[in-house]
Fold this protein.
Amino acid sequence: MKFYKLSKYLFYRILNYFLIIIFTRKNYPLLRVLYSNKKDNNTLSLHFDFTDSSTHFGDRLFFFPLIINLKKSGFSISISNDDVYSKLLLEKLYDFSIPISEANKSDFVIYPSPSFFNFIHLYSNAILVDFTDTSSFAKVSNQLLRSFGDFFSCEFNYDCKVIPNFSYYPYLDKNQKYFLFSNYINSGLFRKFFIDEKKLINQLLLLKKDGFKIVHVGSREDALGIQTNYPYVDLDFRGMTSIIDMVDLVCSPNVYGAVSYDNFLMHLIGLFDKKAYILFRGRFFKKNITHHMNYINNTFFKPKNNIHYL
C-alpha cells in the first residue's frame, strides 16, 4: 500500500511538472500563467482556491499577507466556498474577514502550482504560484507581494502583523513550560525514507532534561496511522486540537517552541516569534535545498532567527 501511494504521488508530481512547462509561462518570480491568459488592466476580482489536497496549511499562510494587501488596494477578493480553514485562519491570525464564493465570476483564479493537473480543466484564467522557483531571492511572502505588484502594476504598502492572543491554553498547567512536538508531514512524504527521525527524539530528550514538558500534536488520522509508543511525550493532544486550537497552543505564554518537520506548525511558531527545532526534509538538489532554507522555511522568522536545524 505504501509503495502504491508513493508511486501514485511521484507519477502525479512528474506529470504535473511537465504540464506546467507545456501550458504555462513564467511572468515574474514565483508566478506562472496559462499561455491563453491575457491580462486586462481593468482586473478587479481575484479568487483564491486552496482546496486541492496538494495545498497544505503552511502554503496558505504564505498567501495571507498578499490577500490582505490586495483587498486593501481595492481588489475584490474571495476564496472557495468549502475553504473554511483559510477563512478561520485569516480571522484568527489577522482579524481579517474574506468572503467565500464560486470562482466563475473572477478575473483570475490563483492557486499553488502543484494543483495544476487537478485544476487545469476548471480554470482558464489561472495564475499559478510556484514556490519551488529558485529565481526568487526574497522570503516567499515578500516575493509574492513584489511579483503580484509588478503583475498588476501596483504597490503594496500594508504591513500585515498577526494579532497575538497570549492567554494560557486551558489544558496546560500554568506552572509548567512546554514544547510542542510534531513528527508528521503531509507533503514530500517519501522523503521520510531518507532522513533520521531519531534527531527529533534526541532534541526532545534534551528539552526534557531542561525541565520542559512535551505535547504531541497532530490529527486524528496521524494518531491512528502510526501506532507507536512515545515514552518521552507528557501530553498527547493528537486528534484533540482544531486548527484554531493549534494557534492558541502556540500563543500560550508557557509554550516556548516546537520540535518538528518543516510543516504548518513550524510556520506558526515563526509567526509568533518562538523557537523551532526543525528536521528538514530536504530537496533533491543542492540549489533547491539552499533556496528552501533561505527563502521558504524561514519566511515568518525574524532576523534573529529562532529556527534551528537538527
Summary: Residues 2-23 form the longest helix (22 residues). The chain has a mean pLDDT of 88. The chain has two domains: 11-151, 178-309. The longest strand covers residues 255-261.
